[in-house]
Design goal:
With about 250 residues, the chain is an alpha+beta fold. The chain has 6 helices and 8 strands, in the order H-E-E-E-H-H-E-E-H-E-E-H-E-H.
């Protein structure tokens, strides 16, 4: 099954809408800076614009993999260079780390959880599709090897899968994270077909886990809220210390 040119453009536009709506905002909250993003796509059409290049395969990457299953099957792979992974983990842990230890890996998995939750929530709010989010798994390796497993889970051949890459980068720090969305062509068509007003969205029952996405995700919102509270408290403590120092000097 192949996507037509107009379907490819609709898919890119749909993902662009969802990423811009909440995912960039969620990452911006976590990193305390504005986020720039760029979307590229690789599919069965050699003429597609902004096609993904895997030429940097020699670079070893850190990755976190998740998937969503239910009305749609979507595989997600977050890849990041080691130095950027350490910087992100340091920000979330609130302390500078020099290597990616178990706590650092957990921090990266939490970032992937939050970004995926925001993406799936927006998708569900706009389409009515319901999706179960898996638990994240961390792995290191080269990009072509990392992407094979999720691609095989949606299609036996990577060349037949629809692979959309969202490059997310910090406007100040230049920290860069790649969100790779992998779909079977049939599910990519299903994702964009909700725009057809005559389409009946199938009812999704018997979720495979308890973290059922589709409406407001309180756990994701609480995680971001807790992070904001920590940042606010740290800022207040810093201001109080400065004020006490000034009073003491006077």
């Amino acid at each position: 099954m192949k996507l037509k040119n107009n379907e490819i453009q609709t898919l890119v536009g749909t993902i662009e809408e969802y990423i811009t709506d909440k995912t960039c905002s969620a990452l911006s909250t976590l990193l305390s800076e504005s986020i720039n993003h760029k979307i590229s796509i690789q599919c069965n059409n050699d003429n597609s614009k902004n096609k993904i290049s895997f030429s940097s395969d020699e670079i070893k990457m850190c990755s976190v993999r998740l998937n969503g299953k239910g009305d749609l099957h979507i595989e997600l792979l977050y890849t990041i260079k080691l130095n950027h992974a350490i910087n992100i983990a340091s920000k979330l842990l609130g302390t500078k780390i020099n290597k990616l230890d178990e706590m650092g890996m957990s921090a990266l998995q939490e970032v992937a959880n939050i970004l995926t939750g925001s993406f799936f929530n927006t998708l569900s709010e706009n389409t009515g599709y319901r999706i179960d989010l898996s638990t994240p798994s961390f792995k290191e390796g080269r990009l072509k090897e990392l992407i094979k497993e999720p691609a095989n889970d949606v299609n036996s051949n990577l060349k037949d899968a629809i692979v959309t890459e969202v490059s997310l980068s910090g406007a100040v720090t230049d920290i860069e994270l790649h969100m790779i969305i992998i779909q079977h062509p049939e599910h990519a068509k299903k994702l964009i077909s909700f725009r057809d007003q005559n389409l009946k969205v199938p009812k999704y029952e018997n979720p495979s886990n308890t973290n059922l996405l589709g409406g407001k995700n309180n756990s994701i919102d609480e995680l971001i809220g807790d992070f904001n509270l920590k940042n606010t408290k740290a800022e207040d403590d810093s201001k109080n210390q400065s004020l006490e120092k000034n009073i003491g000097e006077n």
